[in-house]
Each structure stands twice: as structure tokens, then as C-alpha cells.
Amino acid sequence: MKIAMVSPYDYSWPGGVNAHLTQLSGELRRRGHGVSLIAPQSGGRDDAGQDLDGDDRFIPMGRAVALSAGGSKARVSLSWWLDPRVRRMMAREAFDVVHLHEPLAPLLPYMVLRHSRAVNIGTFHAYSERQRLYRLSRGALGRLQRRLHGRIAVSPAALGFVEPHFPNHAYRVIPNGVEYERFAGAEPLPEAGDGRANVLFVGRKDERKGLRYLLEGFAKLVQQGGRQRLTIVGPGQPDRECARLLDEINRLAPGAAALAGAVSNDDLPRYYASADVFCSPATGGESFGIVLLEAMAAGVPVVASDINGYRDVVADGKQGLLVPPKSPEAIAAAISRIAGDAELAGRLAAGGRKRAQEYRWERIAADVEDYYHHCIEEVAAGGNAR
């Protein structure tokens, strides 16, 4: 099959949706399909496409601007002038399947869907406690929804978010995947083995990722004389409060907290492999939690917020410890408990590895491929997928 994998988000900026479609594309290519990735790109304008690997191509489509929403920033294209370029590209490529990730996000998915003559599949990644966006735009987005022939939700939380606003459609839950071997086989960084317990955070520094609460909790551990070290991996700069907390931590214990910035794909698994505890203190709005899977594949016990999306991946006491969101005290207690109990840490690590194996991309991509065929058959029979 010739497949278009479409993202509304800036492909130059790391994020869960782009990681999902990139890794899914790689596995589909290994299964014999040709895949083109289509997304905005900072500074990108050439719509002729760039070869990636084998039959894969990346087709940059428009520049991205940052929008603030729900404590996070989404980097999307808002240019209506892209429409003629999208129309020409879709006519030229003649895809068999167009797979749109966040198909209701502005504006690229709308234009691709408008000009698509392929079988159109949408994957819904988002979850939020707030329902305002879909509620206010239900009419316009409902018309867009009807151009989809199949619908995937990455988790029960994502399904519960979208389905009430667009009922009477069939959805299939197919979760995110993880490159299990890449994380399970990584070598630790040499500087990690100095006797300190290494705590790792991976993610953007958006408000809803909860870094502030981790820093507040970690400061308490330092004040209590703990010998942990916190490493923060991810793009962007900390806000004023997080910067203040970092300074306070390092004033109390020099070198106890470090900003690693955006690390390479090759180095990222090594940061996980170097960690004794992985912490994701997100405050909400998480449909799944790919970073949890990555940590579990690497055999790292997890401390995570007890929120929708995360509960679909981590069971408290089996793969990690779930703590109330926005609770520095609970975060500190959970980190200290794992760091001080080798038996518990080993049990959580083993449970995490076992759980992560269920999400290997080979298995997830096979389910997606099966759904493609199902939707193609339904469209050939004159209907949408059920």
C-alpha cells in the first residue's frame, strides 16, 4: 500500500504524536508498505519530499506557529495559503490510505482530508478534562468527521474524550507502541555510576507536564540529606519558578539537578538505562504516556501521577507507584521508597518490562495494518468501518 501519515504538529519539534507516527511508519515500511510523512516543519517549504529510508519520504507542508492550550503548546500550521500546495501534492501522490493523526487539529489535516480520494483513517491521541473545544466546534468538525472511513483511539481515555461529541461512529482502540529492543538493550551513561540514585524526567517543560512539582519534591529530598540526582531531558527552557527551584536544589547540593536539554534519539535510551527511578508528574491531559512505556522497556521503576491515560499503562504497585497529581510530598515519598528498597525496585522493573512487551511496535503495527484492510473492504462495499 502507498500510505500517507499526516501530523498537524511541527515535525522539527519532539512530541508524542510525531514519535508515534514516525515509529509506526518505520514498522509499516518493514512490512512492505511505502510511507510518506506529511507535517509542518519549522523553516520547511519544499513539498517535493525528502527521502528518509527505503520507501519512506518526508513531505514538509507549511511553517508552524505555537499555540497555547491546556497548559501546553501546540506547534501547528495556520496558513490557508497551503491549500493549493496540498491539493497538488495529493493529486500527484495518489495514496491508497491517508492516516491522519489528530484529524480535527488545525489546519493541515483538514486540507489533506478535503483533497483526499483515498481511504481515510483518523487516530485520536488527545485527552483533556475540558470539553470546550469539541463542544464549541462540533458542527464544523462533524462535517469533517464524516470524511473519515475509520477511527482509532490510542486509549480508553482518548476514546472517552472524542466519542461523546461525535457519536454514531465506530472507533477501534489501538494503543501507542514502543521500540522495545532499543530501550531494553541500551547501555547506561558512564557518569551515572557514581553511587547516587538517578531520577529521570523526560518531556517538554509545559505546565501540564508537572516539572515544577517534581522539583519541589526533589528539593525536599535534598533538604533531608538524600543522595539522589535529577536529570531533566527535553526541549525548551524552564519557567521562572522551575529555574528558581533548580538554583535552590543546586545551592543545597551542587550538581544534584541538571538540564540535559533535547538529546538525540541515539542517546535517549541511554538516559533511561542510567536511571534508577523515572518520574512523570503530569497534572492531566495525558491520553496515554509514551514516556512511561519507554521507561518500563528500559527496566526503570516508574513514579507517575494517578491520572486518566497513565492508569491505562501503569498499575499501582505492579509497574510503578501512582501518586496524586500536584503533590510534591507524594512524589518525594515515592522516589525515596523505590530508591531505598531494592526488592521493590526490582519487582517494579520486572513488571514494567513485561508490560512494555505488550506494546511492541510489531504487534501494534500489525493491528493497524489489519484495520487498514478492514476499512478498505468496508469502503469497497460502500460503507465505513464498523
Give the biggest sheet: 8 strands, mixed
The chain-level structural class is alpha/beta
CATH topology of the largest domain: Rossmann fold
Q: What is the H/E order?
A: EHEEEEEHEHEHHEHEHEHEHEHEHEEHHH
Strand order across the biggest sheet? 3-4-2-1-7-8-9-10
Helix content: 25-40%
Number of domains: 2
Mean pLDDT level? 89
Quaternary state of the chains: single chain
Q: What's the count of strands? A: 16
What are the segments in which pLDDT stays under 50 over at least 5 consecutive residues?
Answer: 44-55
Strand content: 15-25%
Distance between the termini: 21 Å
The top-level CATH class of the largest domain is Alpha Beta
Shape: elongated
Rg, Cα atoms, Å: 21 Å
CATH architecture of the largest domain: 3-Layer(aba) Sandwich
- By CATH, the superfamily of the largest domain comes out as Glycogen Phosphorylase B
Total helices: the number is 14
3D structure, described in words:
This protein has an 8-stranded mixed β-sheet with strand order 3-4-2-1-7-8-9-10, sandwiched between helices. A 6-stranded parallel β-sheet has the order 13-12-11-14-15-16, sandwiched between helices. Strands 5-6 form a two-stranded antiparallel sheet. The chain is α/β, with parallel strands linked by helices and 386 residues long. The model is unreliable at 44-55 (pLDDT under 50). It folds into 2 domains: 2-177 and 360-380, Rossmann fold (3-Layer(aba) Sandwich); 180-357, Glycogen Phosphorylase B (Rossmann fold), CATH 3.40.50. The protein contains 14 helices and 16 strands.
